[in-house]
Amino acid sequence: MLIALFGAVESGVIYAIMALGVYLSFRVLDFPDLTVDGSFVTGAGISAILIVNGTSPVIATLIGALAGFIAGCLTGLLHTAGKINALLAGILMMIALYSINLRFMGQPTVSLLNESTLISQIQSAWASTGIDTGLNAVLQALGADRVPTTWGIFIVMTVLTVVIKFLLDYFLKTEIGLAIRATGDNQKMIRSLSANTNFLIIVGIGLSNALVALSGALVGQLGGFANLNMGIGMIVIGLASVIIGEALFGKKTITRVTLAVILGAIVYRIVVTLALRVDFLESSDLKLITAVLVIAALVTPKVLQARREKKRRLAKRAALVEQKEREASA
Amino acid sequence: MLKIEDVSMTFNENTPDEKKALQRINLELEKGEFVTVIGSNGAGKSTLMNVISGSLIPDVGDVYINDQNVVHLPEYKRSKMIGRVFQDPMAGTAPSMTIEENLAMAYARDKKRKLVPGVNKKRKDHFREYLETLNLGLEDRLNAKVGFLSGGERQALSLLMATFTEPYILLLDEHTAALDPSRAELITKITKDVVAKFGLTTMMVTHNMQQALDLGDRLFMMDKGQIIFDIKGEEKQNLTIKNLLDEFQRIRGKQIESDRAVLG
Ligand SMILES: Nc1ncnc2c1ncn2[C@@H]1O[C@H](COP(=O)(O)OP(=O)(O)OP(=O)(O)O)[C@@H](O)[C@H]1O
Ligand SMILES: [Mg+2]
């Protein structure tokens, strides 16, 4: 159980990078970008095939992210220069990427089992520090019977994700970042303030998909393979993370939302892991679980809000009745 | 400062909906001139503003700002030189962003946007100073989301954002029309003050004839895509609403007669 949860958090931290990308397109730019399902595989596939062919894992991972950036820019270009509806532009790019990814990968699955990947490098570098023994000793003292094989991946990936979060926070407050946010908020206005909204959309969707592809590259290396279909439904998982995060942890400021999105991605993984341990649910029910989660995250806050409002009104009404009684008796 | 030569614009040409929105418009504004523009619905006032700002490209004709022909310059490039306030108070600001962020975006209008923070200590002080001139207390709410401001407050902020970088041209399209009378008066006063303060070359569309007479040093009356009346200086100062209506009758009456003559 503990090990399963640890695994959920570990991969949640990596999927969080993808969720940040989805946040950038869906929320910041208000652009429902479905490229994600394809660009996630682009990141995983291109980095995997490069690693198999001997490229250093760090460089392979970065090239994977760059490929995602290019794919996103193309979607942005379809939408801005081609004047194609945002949803359709994303869908077109997504199916185009399916073929392109297969071209790059050469076969539907690229195995990384015997390769030296970023993940395996972190693992071995970490092992030599000996931090694990200490952390695991603490766990065992707390009564855990089984302990994680390595803390390295979790800790390094958490650091990476947090660094990306802070970079994103900073970026969204720069002059260019403000203009990107305004493009999602009020395009007419920011164009009247001399911002080239087409360019900003292209760059924004590019960055979004770079994050998605980076996440894909890392997920592929963590899992030990890249598969042509590993991106199916990724956009829904990303949205689920964003929506769950916003519902649970708030969305007042940029800094707050990006943190909420990361936590949302982790919560999503935990809930899925727990749900799959319920006897009557099978792994094929995963998509249904995701859908239910998103619906719950969307509906619950509204129901709670309506309840609070109703309670408030009832309290006011009671107070009024009381006041009238007092006036009558006076 | 602003020159428009032979600008025409027809919507839906050769269809039953054909609309000649602008017909051979010629005009020239001196630096610092403040023109009010009146005219009935559909006269072409907004179309003229959109042609100047670059949101619309005219069928023919040229637009010069500062002696540079800008007619083929895309809107976002032209807006380095042009400040605008729209009729809809929602249109001029980004609602989910804060007051200081909105101001920062306006501040970057005539510069190249970079990867440096949009808001810093120095700019904040700057923004606060500008906001104080509005007398709305917005200087104490720099971190409030603009979506929570009232229409009047938003319009005042839009006006500030359109003007404080001192653009060559300021375009105001019925920017007080959506406000209640007292707010409209406030915005009118602020308009007068900022235009005077920065000496901005301004075109302001309004349906309020009194406002058109009170403000500015020149007046255009538009009808059916043409500027049918252009008056400035002392003559404009002595103008009354009755004069304006009579003038409209006189010019249009003549035209109706000549139309009849042409049609036989
Ligand atoms: N995009 C468009 N497509 C078709 N017709 C248009 C378009 N924009 C404006 N028109 C038409 O051009 C004419 C001039 O419109 P414009 O908006 O310039 O009028 P206006 O003087 O601003 O009127 P109002 O006082 O109502 O704002 C109108 O008849 C309008 O229907
Ligand atoms: Mg108009």
UniProtKB/TrEMBL annotation, chain A:
The keyword Cell cycle does not apply. Keywords: Cell membrane, Membrane, Transmembrane, Transmembrane helix. GO terms for cellular component: plasma membrane. It is a multi-pass membrane protein. The chain crosses the membrane at residues 12-29, 58-78, 85-104, 151-172, 193-219, 225-245, 257-276, 288-304. Its main location: membrane. It is found in: Cell membrane. The keyword Membrane applies. This is Putative ABC transport system permease protein.
From TrEMBL, chain B:
Coiled coil: none annotated. It is a peripheral membrane protein. SMART domains: AAA (SM00382). Gene3D superfamilies: P-loop containing nucleotide triphosphate hydrolases. The keyword Cell membrane applies. GO terms for molecular function: ATP binding; ATP hydrolysis activity. InterPro entries: AAA+_ATPase (IPR003593), ABC_transporter-like_ATP-bd (IPR003439), ABC_transporter-like_CS (IPR017871), ABC_transporter_ATP-bind (IPR050166), P-loop_NTPase (IPR027417). Residues 2-249 form the ABC transporter domain. Pfam families: ABC_tran (PF00005). It is found in: Cell membrane. Keywords: ATP-binding, Cell membrane, Membrane, Nucleotide-binding, Transport. This is Putative ABC transport system ATP-binding protein.
